[in-house]
Specification:
By secondary structure, the protein is an alpha+beta fold. It has one domain. The protein is built from three helices and seven strands. The chain has a five-stranded antiparallel beta sheet with strand order 1-2-5-6-7. A two-stranded antiparallel ribbon has the order 3-4. Helix 1 packs across helix 2 and helix 2 crosses helix 3.
Length: 138
């Protein structure tokens, strides 16, 4: 579920993203139907989705950022924001580059499961690139 989608700005953002990209629409729909809660970021470039559950008693900081590349392909980047309030650092857990129609629903589900679990190494999706040579927008 996307727990903050009942907020008007988030609902508008979700509609805008779904209208911009069929992949974004598929990713949002998968998050809505997932048993664990997620939160959609209100602003920024691309789709920024974070897990909104607790892992081992602590807030889950796992997030993914889906965005378009200049080549027309799409990318998804998995990260956790820094715990330091003054820092804009992100700790990367890998990424994937793909054609817009090239991701099966099972893979999207695997991504969301990985986020909901807090991105433990033993649950890391096989096809994530460890080195991600792209600028990830904010």
């Amino acid at each position: 579920m996307v727990g903050n989608e009942n907020e008007a700005p988030i609902r508008r953002r979700a509609e805008e993203l779904a209208g911009r990209s069929a992949f974004f629409a598929r990713l949002l729909e998968a998050a809505r139907s997932h048993p664990e809660p997620f939160r959609l970021a209100e602003d920024g470039e691309g789709l920024d989705l974070g897990a909104d559950n607790r892992v081992q008693g602590r807030p889950n900081r796992a997030r993914l950022k889906a965005f378009s590349l200049p080549t027309g392909r799409l990318a998804v980047f998995f990260y956790k924001p820094s715990l330091l309030p003054f820092s804009r650092d992100r700790y990367g857990y890998g990424g994937r580059v793909f054609d817009p129609a090239g991701v099966p629903p099972e893979e999207i589900r695997q991504w969301l499961d990985f986020l909901a679990a807090g991105m433990p190494p033993d649950r890391r999706p096989d096809n994530l690139l460890r080195g991600f040579p792209y600028d990830v927008p904010r």
